Amino acid sequence: MNAADHYGLDELRRACIGFMHCCINEDTVCTILCSAEKYIQYKSTKSLVQRALEFIDENGEEVLSLPGFSSLPEHVVRLILSREELRAEEVTKFYAAVGWSRQLCKRRPGTKLKEAMSPFIGSIAWHFIPASVLMTEVKQCGAVSDQKIMNALAFQADPNCVSENKLTKTLSTIHLHRDCDSSSMNTSHVTWEDEQVLNSDISCAMSTSSDLTDTSSSGGSFGKGDQKNGRVLEV
C-alpha cells in the first residue's frame, strides 16, 4: 500500500486501502495502529489510521478491553481516550488506562503506577464513574489524587456545588459524548503539520481543523497531543 503511494500507483493504492479497511476488526485494529507508526508519512497510512480510530470509536467498550490495547504506544492510548466520539463508559476508560499502565510497569521495573497512568488522568471524566468504584478501585490504585476523587463525589451528590473548571471534562463535552449518535457527531481534525508543532508542547490550544486526506506527506508519530478546555486533539 505504501509502496504504491510512494511510486504514485493510484489504482493499486486505492485497491490496497480498500482491502486494508476491510481488514479492520477487533482482532487487528491494535496491531494496525502499532504498525502505522513506521509509515505515518504516507497519505495511505493516515487514511488507514483514521479508519482504525473510527472503528475504535464505534466499538470502544470492546476494543478498550482487548489485551492488545496494552501494546499501543502511550500517545495513541491518550489520543483514543481523549476522543469525544469514543463510545465507551468512563469506568471502562479507567480500567483500560490502569491495564495499560500496569503492563508498562512490568516492562519497566521501578516505574510507579501513578507515574505510568499520569498521561491519561485528564482524559477521563471521573465524575461519571460510579461512587462505589471511585471509593474502591480508583482510590486504591493510588494514581488519582484525593482532590479529584472528592470533586467527582461532590458533583454526584450535588452538581451545583462543584465548579465546572474543577472537573476533567466540561459537561458539554460529556453530553455530546453520551447523547449524540454517530450521524450527528461533530468530528474535528488537525493536519499532521500542526500535529508535529503541538507535539512539542501538549498544553497548546487546538489548531485549525482540516481533513486527514490532505495531500501533505510530512512524517512523525500520530496522535501525540492533549486536551484543553474540553476540546480534544485528534488525527
Major sheet size, sense and barrel closure: 2 strands, antiparallel
Question: Into which percentage range does the β-strand content fall?
Answer: under 5%
- Series of secondary-structure elements, N-terminal to C-terminal: HHHHHHHHHHHHEE
Overall strand count: 2
Largest sheet, order of strands side by side?
A: 1-2
Helix content, binned percent: 40-55%
SS class: mainly alpha
Q: Measured on Cα atoms, how large is the radius of gyration?
A: 18 Å
Mean of pLDDT: 74
End-to-end distance: 20 Å
Assembly type: single chain
Describe the structure concisely for a colleague.
The chain is mostly helical. The protein is 50% helix and 2% strand.
Word description of this protein:
- With 235 residues, the protein is an all-alpha fold.
- Helix content is 50%, strand content 2%.
- It has helices at residues 2-6, 10-22, 29-36, 43-58, 60-63, 74-82, 90-107, 113-117, 131-141, 146-157, 171-179, 192-199, and strands at residues 227-228, 231-232.
- A two-stranded antiparallel sheet has the order 1-2.
- A hairpin with a 2-residue loop joins strand 1 (227-228) and strand 2 (231-232).
- Helix 2 (10-22) packs parallel to helix 4 (43-58), helix 3 (29-36) packs antiparallel against helix 4 and helix 9 runs antiparallel to helix 10 (146-157).
- The two termini are 20 Å apart.
Main traits of this protein?
single chain; 235 residues; mainly alpha; 2 strands
